[in-house]
Specification:
heterodimer, A: 873 residues, alpha+beta, six-stranded mixed β-barrel
Chain lengths: 873, 109
């Protein structure tokens, strides 16, 4: 404490403290001199000797002044003032450096914000490392059930010692209806009553589930998530005890979970898992199990124990559990974002490249300025500055630059995030994604601002501080920049070029992918079609006949809505996948599993798809007349190449009773149902809705007005048929397509932005280095011109200067780009990871930028007047 | 005198200054000469280190300085040992004793 006060006194009472010190040291000298005079020396001689013995009054004072924390602060303050003055004297250089850094730091921080949420996602748990998921697997037959059965769950739970608790759940979309708003679809988890206890979560209000809630015949209960309470019930204080209908079953709300607690999977509602006859079958493995490790137990211990327990069950229940073992994994594997991690690391690396290129630019600029400041440095060394103080002062300058870059980078980051938000559009954002700069992001910003300052400032500072005092005496103040300095610059440029090429290649590949995606013809007219999804809850629609009746009724009603041209139903929309059917093809021995789309009879007319051969469905198909089906061209080509598909027969074989044979009456052109590499068209069959009724389906309505206008009317018709039924994902077909393509185009967009920034920075960097090198060789150029060199020769000289780092950098970069492109393979559609167009384009862009970077200094060099150059120092 | 003399290590210099002031308050030059005297010329105190030590010891609160009139009617800064300084001196003496005994043991072994 005393030290603090003393230090403060020194800082602010500098003059007085200095005077006192001066008096004290001089008195010391006087006293020493007096001693010597006593021994007979003259006053002058005595004083001189005393001063020599002391080592110099000023020297001693300096030593004393250097002690204490205030000295460090004082030095730092001086460095800051000096650094700011130096920067202000070179506004052009400072501006370029700050802009380059702002771009790099801003982009990096924005990416960090986007990605950090995913990397630290804890699924709403306090301690996900202690929670595990238990899966049944059959290694012998290579099957992973992604779940377990209820009886097995009960046995595990009662027998396990390594898990402190084990719970089971199942997730389904449900319709929630009550008097407060239109029915809506929510994700509901049916969970064993101990679920929240295992997750160690307590409701915000109300109570947790009890064992009595999961007994058959118990009064149905419901727990809701905070956002449901907030958005649907407006934080109604009377929510606990309210009765609402979940899939038309009245349930009492017993509690609300706290904000952001949506374990296990972005859940909206929780109900108790009440065992039914279906669930209690030991071979029905549709439940997901999660458990908490007991204190002191590790994952591997739990794995070992559960494997043993599974063996026990396999022995005990050989007919259902034979060959089944248990897999214990950390809970994070079920979070979708877990799988996206590699992608995020790639993006993070990409933006890191941009930042490194920016640092390289500034480092090169500092190296160039170093030659200019040599004289200043050598004078300071001659006056007694230590190397450390020089390095420190230069680093302070660098950090000032990077801090300014960080400040502007903040603005760029905010802008970038807002752009990203807009780019995502109306897609539902995952709950881990936060697009605002929170405190953590700001810390990160500050850290990399200072960090980059040290990184790019260190090398130039170390080099510059090594100047000897002799440099100041030389008249030309240093002249040609040292060979080593040039080599460092060249290495930096080479690295920048390599990083830049990698980014350009990535951007090129992704952009080509996106273009292919957008260009790929869908095969149907997707404009002005409104879509929405419905799921018919089994409780009120237990039998397929109910589904057929519902959709028949609904279809007629929607078709009658003004503005609707035609209404239909389909199991899948374009780019929406398909339903899998085990299929038997007449005449072929093997059974196939083929994708199929179940649709209303007017589906093809609605989607404006015309048959390539034969016909599409008509009114009577499925009701009267022989059972029919339609296939797409890919299917016909695969199974009946060279033959006529019309008249062939297939049948679906997924139930115990033999199905009827369906006759092919038409072949339709391929419609794109899936975005995969090479945009391959899969063989598909089309079945009428009455042939294979579906519980979940898309409602389609082609409108002759903008689809937005008919949304409310269509929803009202659905309400009139069933007031408890919710529709969800209400979108136009075009919007849906855009969303499917979004991920690739978003990735491509981000990479293109980064690649663009990187190219700009690399080009500017190259320009800086070449321009500096040329200015250093000004006199040489003058001599050459005087000796008869043509302007072309001079230009060639400049370009020759740039070649070594450029060529080396490109070479290394292309090789590295081949490697890094392979990482992107999963995200590419219709493009190989060594696509020549992308590589060629990347090379072209970079060479163009490099050419421009050299051209300006070359022009300047060509215009050098030999007389001026020879006189210039 | 010069050859055998060595500069005192910082930690021990503190201790020597405290010991010197334990006898009576003194000004800077007096302390320097006293240390040289007491060490029979083995230690020649570097003025720079001495003044830095003064500053340090003052900061720690072990010595206190005040400007007084010296014997020649000149103004000089006199340092005196504080209560805490006296305590510190005792501790340092004990520590030094242990350390030198240990080193002696090692060297004899």
């Amino acid at each position: 404490m005393k030290r603090l006060l003393e230090g403060l006194r020194q800082l602010f009472g500098k003059e007085r403290a200095d005077r006192e010190l001066d008096d004290e040291v001089r008195e010391f000298v006087e006293a020493a001199a007096r001693e010597k005079m006593k021994r007979g020396a003259s006053r002058q001689k005595a004083l001189r000797e005393a001063r020599l013995q002391l080592g110099g009054v000023e020297n001693v004072k300096e030593q004393v002044r250097a002690f204490g924390w205030e000295a460090i602060v004082g030095n730092l303050w001086q460095d800051l003032k000096f650094g700011a003055r130096m920067i202000a004297r070179n506004p052009g250089f400072a501006a370029v450096a700050v802009i380059a850094l702002a771009l790099g730091i801003g982009a990096d921080t924005a990416m960090y914000t986007i990605v950090s949420g995913s990397l630290t996602w804890k699924m709403g748990l306090d301690d996900p490392s202690r929670v595990v998921v238990v899966n049944a697997v059959d290694r012998v037959h290579g099957r992973d059930f992604f779940g377990a059965s209820y009886p097995d769950f009960l046995d595990f739970r009662s027998q396990t010692k390594s898990l402190a608790g084990l719970a089971a759940y199942r997730m389904t979309p449900v319709n929630l209806s009550d008097s407060s708003a239109l029915p809506d679809m929510y994700l509901c988890v049916a969970m064993s009553a101990n679920g929240f206890a295992v997750a160690q979560q307590k409701p915000l209000i109300g109570r947790d589930f009890r064992a009595s809630d999961e007994q058959p015949g118990a009064a149905p209960t419901l727990m809701i998530a905070y956002h449901v309470w907030r958005d649907r019930y407006a934080l109604d204080p009377g929510i606990v005890g309210k009765t609402v209908r979940v899939d038309a079953v009245p349930r009492v709300v017993i509690g609300v979970m706290p904000l952001e607690r949506r374990f296990p999977e972005d859940t909206d509602l929780w109900i108790p898992l009440v065992p039914t006859a279906e669930i209690e079958k030991r071979d029905n493995r549709s439940l997901l199990l999660f458990g908490r490790l007991r204190d002191g137990n590790s994952l591997s211990q739990a794995q070992a124990e559960l494997t043993t327990l599974a063996h026990g069950l396999a022995a005990q229940y050989a007919d259902t559990d034979k060959d089944i073992t248990a897999d214990v994994e950390p809970i994070m594997v079920i979070a979708g974002v877990y799988l996206m991690r590699p992608l995020f690391y790639v993006l993070f690396a990409a933006v890191g490249f941009v930042l490194l290129i920016a640092c390289g630019d500034v480092a090169n600029m500092l190296l160039a300025r170093a030659t200019v400041r040599k004289r200043e440095m050598s004078i300071r060394v001659a006056l007694g500055a230590t190397r450390i103080s020089l390095v420190r002062q230069l680093l302070v300058e660098s950090v000032l630059l990077s801090a300014a870059g960080g400040l502007f980078g903040w603005i760029i980051a905010i802008g970038g995030l807002r752009l990203f938000d807009r780019g995502l559009g109306s897609i539902q954002k995952p709950s881990w994604l936060h697009l605002s700069l929170d405190r953590e992001a700001l810390f990160y910003l500050a850290a990399i601002s200072i960090g980059t300052g040290i990184i790019f400032g260190l090398a130039p500072a170390l080099r510059l501080s090594r100047t000897s005092p002799n440099e100041a005496i030389k008249e030309d103040g240093g002249g040609v920049s040292s060979k080593r300095g040039l080599r460092t610059s060249n290495v930096l440029v080479g690295l920048q070029m390599a990083l830049c090429i990698m980014l350009l290649v990535a951007a090129g590949l992704l952009t080509r992918s996106a273009v292919k995606l957008y260009d790929a013809p869908i095969g149907a007219n997707t404009r002005n079609v409104l879509t929405m999804r419905v799921t018919l809850p089994p409780a009120q629609y237990p039998k397929p006949e109910n589904w057929i009746a519902f959709h028949d009724d609904l279809q007629k009603r929607i078709a009658a809505v003004p503005g609707v041209e035609s209404a239909g139903v389909a199991s899948n929309v374009p780019l929406g996948g398909w339903v899998s059917f085990p299929l038997e093809i007449e005449g072929k021995a093997e059974q196939q599993t083929i994708g199929g789309i179940v649709a209303s009879n007017n589906y093809f007319e609605l989607m404006q798809i015309r048959a390539a051969r034969g016909r599409v469905f008509n009114e009577s198909d499925g009701h009267s007349g022989p059972p029919v089906a339609i296939v797409n061209e890919a299917f016909a080509a695969k199974f009946w190449r060279g033959e006529d598909a019309l008249g062939k027969r297939i049948r679906v074989t997924d139930s115990a009773t033999p199905a009827q044979w369906l006759t092919i009456v038409g072949v339709v052109p391929d419609v794109l149902q899936n975005l995969r590499d090479n945009l391959r068209h899969d063989p598909l069959i089309y079945l009428t809705f009455s042939e294979q009724p579906q519980q979940r389906a898309y409602l389609l309505a082609r409108a002759n007005v903008p689809p937005g206008a008919i949304v409310d009317d269509v929803r009202r018709e659905v309400q009139r048929v069933d007031p408890n039924l919710a529709v969800f994902e209400v979108r136009t077909l075009d919007q849906r397509m855009a969303e499917s393509r979004l991920s690739v185009s978003l990735l491509g967009g981000i990479c293109s932005v980064f690649a663009g920034i990187a190219t700009l920075l690399a080009g500017v960097g190259l320009y800086g280095v070449i321009a500096h090198a040329v200015s250093q060789r000004n006199r040489e150029i003058g001599v050459r011109m005087a000796l008869g060199a043509s302007r072309g020769d001079i230009a060639r000289l400049v370009f020759w200067q740039a070649s070594p780092p450029l060529i080396a950098g490109l070479a290394i970069g292309i090789v590295a780009a081949f490697g890094s492109a392979r990482l992107l393979r999963a995200a590419l559609v219709g493009v190989t990871s060594s696509d020549p167009a992308a590589f060629g384009g990347a090379l072209f862009v970079l060479l163009l930028a490099a050419f421009l970077g050299c051209a300006i200094p070359a022009r300047r060099a060509m215009r050098v007047d030999p007389m001026v150059a020879l006189r210039h120092e | 005198m010069a050859e055998a003399a060595g500069d005192v290590v910082q930690g021990t210099l503190d201790m020597l200054i405290l010991k010197t002031l334990a006898l009576e308050p003194m000004h800077g030059y007096g302390i320097a000469t006293r240390i040289e005297q007491m060490s029979r010329g083995v230690f020649k105190v570097n003025a720079g280190s001495l003044f830095v030590a003064f500053k340090r010891l003052q900061r720690e609160g072990w010595i206190a300085g005040e400007w007084r009139e010296s014997e020649n009617n000149r103004r000089a800064k006199y340092y005196s040992l504080t209560v805490r300084g006296r305590k510190q001196l005792g501790e340092e003496k004990a520590l030094w004793g242990k350390q030198s005994a240990a080193i002696a043991r090692i060297l004899e072994a």
